[in-house]
Write a structure and sequence with these properties.
The protein has helices at 14-25, 79-98, 118-134, 145-151, 172-185, 229-234, 298-311, 359-375, 382-391, and strands at residues 7-10, 30-34, 49-51, 107-114, 141-144, 161-169, 189-192, 195-201, 204-210, 215-217, 220-223, 243-253, 262-265, 268-272, 278-282, 287-288, 319-330, 340-343, 350-354. By secondary structure, it is of the alpha+beta class. It has 2 domains: 1-105 and 170-242 and 331-397, FAD/NAD(P)-binding domain (3-Layer(bba) Sandwich), CATH 3.50.50; 107-167 and 243-329, D-Amino Acid Oxidase, subunit A, domain 2 (D-Amino Acid Oxidase, Chain A, domain 2, 2-Layer Sandwich). β14 (268-272) and β15 (278-282) form a beta hairpin. It starts with 6 loop residues before the first strand and ends in a 6-residue tail after the last helix.
């Protein structure tokens, strides 16, 4: 940071905007460059939920073919990214509103994991709840079939009950724009441009090169490029391999007020929004490496509506408002949701924040930790410093 130039962040999704926001809070302005606009891709089109963080402890008990399955013991290294975001979201959402920007519609609601069979009921009661209880977590409870039916009279009769977890839901585009606008208000600059490489002096990047030929000088460069990180990292001499999940959801209107409860049944998620609409999502294991595939598909819309109506027949009266989706960037198996955060190997001033498949749920944690790492403040708690060592790009070597 000695020359007085700015930090340059490549990518204006939720990760890049959160890093810019946290740097601005520490008095450091950043230039954020994106070939499109703020939150134009996955960050503005996701389900935008931040569930009870300890549910992420359960990734290692899911079946191996489940999208979120991870090897035992591999999750804990970055749980603080979820904790930080979950705890801070209400304050940040309030700050966005108080500064006069668009309300991100943050609200809290119970999220029910519904059991549709005796085996699922046994799994939830005797594996999931037992695991959480044994580790001292208490903000969850079992609700029997009668209790669920009292909330949703037309619920599928196969539902045998469910675990209720706390959850936060918000509208992603409004949230990311709020982070960006606060950062901009404090001196950050956003510009459109297609980054095509870097000019460097030895092991230090001197500037970011755009397709137009323009060079943007910087003391620090941060790659927050989502699915396009393989290209960006290849300019630094080490291509970062990824897998991509095509994530889609439907936004619908319902004729009658919907109870303020989220539902998960199988791979189907129903989340009420603060404006009265619903998000219908499906945890599709749609992993591939091609960013040219269609962002949304007609088959998904049909399947999602059928699954939602099968769970709650009253949703047959819902009106489709938006079918949206985009690509999420994940780590290759066997740890698909382990992010990579830190300084890029062999470079003095190049940093990367990548493979963050659950970007909204970790956004404030990632932004805070990356800002502290870039500034070298040394103020992070010891567990976060240990976590960043595990997630460092150097660990990929």
């Amino acid at each position: 940071m000695s020359s007085g130039n700015e930090v340059v962040i490549v990518g204006a999704g939720v990760t890049g905007c959160s890093i810019a926001y946290h740097l601005a809070k520490r008095g450091i302005t950043a230039t954020i460059i994106d070939r499109e606009s703020i939150a134009a891709r996955a960050s503005g089109k996701s389900w935008a939920m931040c569930p009870y963080p300890p549910t992420n402890l359960l990734f290692d008990i899911f079946p191996p073919d489940h999208l979120f399955h991870m090897p035992e013991g591999s999750v804990r290294h970055f749980l603080d990214l979820f904790y930080i975001t979950y705890r801070r979201l209400p304050d940040v959402a309030m700050e966005i509103c108080e500064k006069g920007f668009a309300d991100p519609w943050l609200h809290e609601l119970p999220w029910f994991w519904l059991a549709l069979s005796e085996d699922e009921e046994d799994f939830y009661k005797n594996v999931v709840i037992t695991r959480l209880d044994s580790e001292g977590w208490y903000e969850h409870s079992w609700v029997d079939a009668a209790g669920v039916k009292a909330m949703f009279p037309d619920i599928n009769p196969e539902v045998r009950g469910g675990i209720a977890f706390p959850c936060k839901q918000f509208e992603p585009y409004r949230y990311v724009m709020g982070l960006a606008q606060i950062a901009e208000q404090m001196g950050a600059t956003f510009r459109e441009g297609d980054v095509v490489g870097f000019r460097h002096q030895g092991s230090k990047i001197a500037s970011v090169t755009l397709a137009s030929g323009t060079e943007v000088e910087a003391d620090v460069v941060v790659l927050a490029m989502g699915p396009w990180i393989p290209q960006g990292s290849s300019w630094l001499g080490k291509e970062m391999h990824i897998v991509i999940n095509r994530d889609q959801c439907l936004r619908v209107q319902v004729p009658n007020p919907f109870p303020n409860y989220g539902l998960l049944a199988g791979d189907t998620t129903i989340l009420p929004q603060a404006n009265g609409e619903l998000i219908l999502g499906h945890e599709a294991n749609d992993l591939h490496t091609d960013t040219e595939n269609p962002l949304i598909t007609a088959d998904f819309k049909t399947t999602m509506l059928e699954e939602a109506i099968n769970l709650l027949p009253s949703l047959g009266e819902a009106k489709l408002v938006e079918h949206r989706g985009d690509f999420e960037c994940w780590s290759p198996p066997p740890r698909p949701i382990q992010p990579v955060l830190g300084r890029f190997p062999n470079w003095d001033n190049a940093y990367v924040a990548a493979r963050i498949g659950l970007g909204q749920s970790m956004s404030l944690g990632v932004g805070q930790c990356m800002a502290e790492l870039i500034l070298g403040e040394g103020t992070s708690p010891i567990q976060i410093r240990n976590m960043m060592e595990v997630l460092s790009p150097a660990a990929l070597q």
